[in-house]
Amino acid sequence: MQGHDRVLSVEKTTENKFLNMYDLQYENKVGGHGVYHIASRAMSMEELKMKTRENKPDGVIIYSLYGEKKDHVVLVRQYRFSIDDFVYEFPAGLVDKGEDPAQAGIREMKEETGLDFVPLKADEMFCKPLFSSIGMTDESVATVYGCSTGQVSREGLEDNEEIEVVLADRTEVRRILKEEKLSINCAYLLMHFLHHTEEDPFYFLHNE
């Protein structure tokens, strides 16, 4: 009976502030050996999720509705170096030490958009941290849901953040899904937004 792939050793190969690279020496299920490269938010080997066996969220994404009828969704159109282009996403960011995801969502929404965010309590199955791109990183993010009010502002943006806030209605969401570049988690949740009702815009969070 064959075994399974396993990590033999880990070496950290960079010293960066927000993201680092690690080389994993591994043995595969038939006895072959190789090196697998991953990126991680972990600042040390001991903090890697493969070491802690804990899935604490590195960041949050924020699904927020806007307007009296909650008929707009808050998006950001952001420049990303990885593709040298703009992409539509939800407001998002890293969870600071001592924060829970809801607190991080409130802070990040204010910083990126100027809006005031009120989180909605949801069942753990909908907001637990999930892996963002498991083939290349152990990063996980939690989703927070809620509504925002106030006026859009750019005052909280950092110098290297190039962000346009978009309050999109269903017509604009359809156009974005058809024509624009999006993050995959944003695309999936926008598909839900297209079918929400005024009576229950968070219908998809029911645990039934």
UniProtKB/TrEMBL annotation:
Single GO MF annotation: hydrolase activity
Cofactor(s) this protein requires: Mg(2+)
Record's keyword terms, sorted: Hydrolase
Highest taxon listed in the record's lineage: Bacteria
EC number of the protein: 3.6.-.-
Residues annotated as domain Nudix hydrolase: 55-190
CDD domains, per the entry: NUDIX_ADPRase_Nudt5_UGPPase_Nudt14
InterPro entries tied to this protein: Nudix_hydrolase, NUDIX_hydrolase-like_dom_sf, NUDIX_hydrolase_dom
Entry protein name: NUDIX hydrolase
